[in-house]
Automatic annotation (TrEMBL):
Keywords: Hydrolase, Metal-binding, Zinc. It comes from Kitasatospora putterlickiae. It catalyses: 1D-myo-inositol 2-acetamido-2-deoxy-alpha-D-glucopyranoside + H2O = 1D-myo-inositol 2-amino-2-deoxy-alpha-D-glucopyranoside + acetate. Belongs to the MshB deacetylase family. It comes from the Bacteria. Zn(2+) binds at H15, D18, H150. The gene is mshB. Pfam families: PIG-L (PF02585). This is 1D-myo-inositol 2-acetamido-2-deoxy-alpha-D-glucopyranoside deacetylase.
């Protein structure tokens, strides 16, 4: 018998707002259930566009104060989700937003895209060995949709999973910890196709996004896990609305748009692909911790089957 506080979930994201869009309902649900939810965000999103005209002066080409502003937005979003353990990789501002692929920001020293993967992963290993999460959530190898910071977040998270489990790697950061399950954020193609059709019909935006604009879209069969967070729909919508420089949430919360003003469905069932570790007994899983023995000792959570060997 284990208490729910034995469940520890780590999410690794590129910019403030990615966590609420991808995992807001998941984070709210696990936090409400008493699990320990840790968010590591790799940059402050300094290079983002700004939606509200009154805040346009924050952008990198004007005041360049968007990063500090977005720390405030993230703080408000995490309050809406009930998540208290929020960190920036290496501290706030350690890695700068790289901008979209091909822009000159990608070459700027200090941008996350130019960071040494092992060096950045070492900073994440420190968090992993401290928090000892059984589950890690990040993006696929394309970063979901090709943004350099999202690709780099994938690389850093993936490397940190390896290094954290290696007892020979920097023992000063704490005992080795093997993360039992690693997931990538996904959206099933049928779900986004249906959702975008509904957006076209009902959402108050001038246009509608294409499936290609939505990160992590895959064929339905690739998805292993569907997390029903519909009870936390209001919290997810509030968290997304807190990122007001980046997101416009439609009244009622069913739809949203980014700075391109193209509507998308605000999904409250969130989808994942298990890429490392053993799935729970039933597919699709409805719980990221499915199949785990949460009584596992340091060194990593094991499945019940593994512990029986
Ligand atoms: Zn992002």
């Amino acid at each position: 018998m284990t208490s729910t506080s034995d469940r520890r979930l780590l999410l690794v994201h590129a910019h403030p707002d990615d966590e609420s869009i991808n995992n807001g309902a998941t984070m709210a649900r696990y936090a409400a259930e008493g699990a320990h939810v840790t968010l590591v965000t790799c940059t402050l999103g300094e290079g983002g566009e700004v939606i509200p005209a009154g805040l346009a002066h924050l952008t990198a080409d004007r005041d360049d104060t968007l990063g500090a502003h977005r720390i405030g937005e993230l703080t408000e979003a995490m309050a809406a989700l009930g998540v208290t353990d929020v960190r920036f990789l290496g501290g706030p501002g350690r890695y700068r937003d790289s901008g979209m692929m091909g822009v000159p920001d990608n070459d700027a020293p200090g941008c996350f895209w130019r960071a040494d993967v092992d060096e950045a992963a070492g900073r994440l290993v420190a968090v992993v060995r401290e928090v000892r999460p059984q589950v890690l959530v990040t993006y696929d190898e394309r970063g979901g949709y090709g943004h350099p910071d999202h690709i780099q977040a994938h690389r850093v998270a993936t490397r940190a999973v390896e290094l954290a489990a290696d007892p020979a790697y920097r023992p000063g950061l704490g005992p080795a910890w093997r993360i039992a399950k690693v997931y990538w954020n996904r959206v099933p193609r049928s779900v986004i196709t249906r959702g975008l059709a509904e957006t076209a019909e009902k959402a108050p935006f001038p246009g509608v996004a294409e499936p290609a604009d939505v990160p992590g879209v895959v064929d339905d069969g690739v998805v292993t896990t569907a997390l029903d967070g519909s009870a936390y729909a209001d919290r997810k919508a509030a968290a997304m609305a807190a990122h007001a420089t980046q997101i416009t949430v439609a009244p009622g919360g069913g739809f949203f748009a980014l700075s391109n003003h193209l509507g998308q469905p605000l999904l409250t069932t969130e989808y994942y692909q298990l890429v490392s570790g053993r799935a729970g007994p039933r597919l699709p899983e409805d719980d990221l911790f499915a199949g785990l023995d949460l009584t596992a000792a340091p060194g990593g959570a094991a499945t019940s089957e593994e512990r029986a060997r």
